[in-house]
Amino acid sequence: MTQLSFFFEPDKQQPKILTQGVFSHDGIGEDKERITLEENYKHLLEETDEFNRQLVSFQANKTETLHSWIKYREGFSASLVDLLIKKYKFEPDDIIVDPFAGSCTTLLVAKMRGINAVGIELLPHCHLAWEAKSRAFDYSVKELQKLEKIIHNALPPNTTKTFKHLTITKTAFPPQIEKDLMQYSEWFQNLEISTNTKILCQLILTSILEEISYTRKDGQYLRWDGRAKKIQVYNQNRLAKGKKAIKGINKGDLPDVKNAFLTKLEKIITDIIELQKEQLSPSHQQLIKGNTLFELATMKKDHFAGVITSPPYANRYDYTRTYALELAFLDIGDEIFNLRQEQLSCTVENKSKLNDLEEFYKKIGQLDRFNSISEVIQNNKVLSEINTALVKRMELNEINNKGVLPMINQYFSELTFVFAELQRICKSGAYIAFVNDNVRYAGEIIPVDLLSTNLAEQVGFRPVKVFVLPQRKGNSSQQMSKYGRVALRKSITIWQKA
User: Fold this and answer.
1) Cα(109)–Cα(66) distance, rounded to whole angstroms?
2) Residue pair 104/121 in contact by the 8 Å Cβ criterion
C-alpha cells in the first residue's frame, strides 16, 4: 500500500498552477466570489523556494540555539523571522509588532538583531518561555553549572505539594514521576539560587512535561498511552458495553524527571555559553499579556515599522487543550475556560466577541471605528459566500459540528479588527507579514490567504505579494475519502501601509 503524504510535493515537469479554480466540491455551494477573488489577486501569487514548510513551522527551531528550549508546535522558525527582517530592511531604530506572539520567536530574533519589538500573547506558558529565554544573556553560567552538580549529587526533599490537574490531564503521569515532578518543582523554588535561575528551572520542568507523561501532542488533541489509568478505565467502560477497547499509543520507557531535566539543562548551558560570546546592540522588547483584539485598539497610532506574525489557523485547534499539561502545571485552574474563549475564534467552542468588542470600543470613545470595521466585514461578498456554502453543507449533514459555521465567520471578523488596528498603529511604509494556511471544510475551500488580503486592503493596506510555499497542505483522510484530494496553499501574505 502506498502511504499518502499530508503534504504535496510539486511535480516539476508540470507548469505551476497556483490558483484553485474550483472551491466547492460538486458545485454544492456557490463559488463565484471566490473565483473572482483569485482572478483579482492571482498576480500577487508567487511560488518561491525562498520559503519552505520548515521555515513556517517549528521544525527548523528544533535544533536552534535558544529557540529549542521549549517546543511550541504552532510557531514559525527564527530563520523565517530573520529572513523577513532582512528582506524588508527593518533597522535598529524600528519597532516591530507581533500580535500573536506565541513562544516569542519574533521578539527573540529582534533582540538578537538589536531591533525593538512588542508582542501580545494570552497563554501563560508562552509568557514563561519569554521570561526564561529573554534572560539568556543575563544567566550566570557558573551558577547553572553549580546547580547541575547539586542535582546530580542530591535528591529533592519530600513535598505535600500536588499537581493541580485539569479534568483532561488526570493520570497523565505515572504516580512516581508525578511525585518527583512536584518535589523538584518545590525544591527549586526553595533553593538559594537567583530569580533568573528559578525562572529557568520552571521553564525546563514545563518543557519536559510531555516527555515524562503518557501524552503526546497531536494536532488539536492529546494522544494517550494505553498504560494511562484514564485509558484503562475508559476501556473497561467500553468493554462493559460490548464495545472494542481502544489501543492507545505506546511511548516506550518514560525518562525520569531528574534525567530529563539534566539533559535539557546541559543543552541550555551550552546554548548560553555560545550566546554570551556575542555582543548585543541595545534594544527593547516587551511582551504584553492579553487579548490582541483589545490590546491593539489602545495602542499608539503610526508607531510601528512592521509586523511579523502568524495567527492561530482556522483549523479547530484549541491551544488550551494542546497545552493542557503546561497550563495545569502553571496552576491555571478554572481560568482555562476564560483563556479558551479569549483566543482568536479558531475552535468550535468559541463564542462571538463582537458584543464585547462593541462595548470596549464604546468605552474608549471609538464606536465609529468599530462600526466602520464591522461594515467591512458585513459587506465582504467572499465571506458571505463562504458562510452560505457552509450552511448548505450543514443542511446536507456534511459538517459534523455546527460550531464550524460561527467559527469561520468569527475567525475572519476578528482578524478584520486585527488588520484594521494594525493599519492604524503602523507607520506609513510599514510592511506586514502574515503566515497562514488555507483550509477546507465539507468540500468547501476557504482561501484564507486571499480573503485576508482582500479584508486587509479594505481597511487600508496595499497588497504586495502572496508567497506560496512549494509544498502544499493536504486534507484530512475524511475529506479526501468523500471529496477527493486537493492541495491547499500555505502562504506568507505581504501588505504595506501606504
Assistant:
1) 10
2) yes
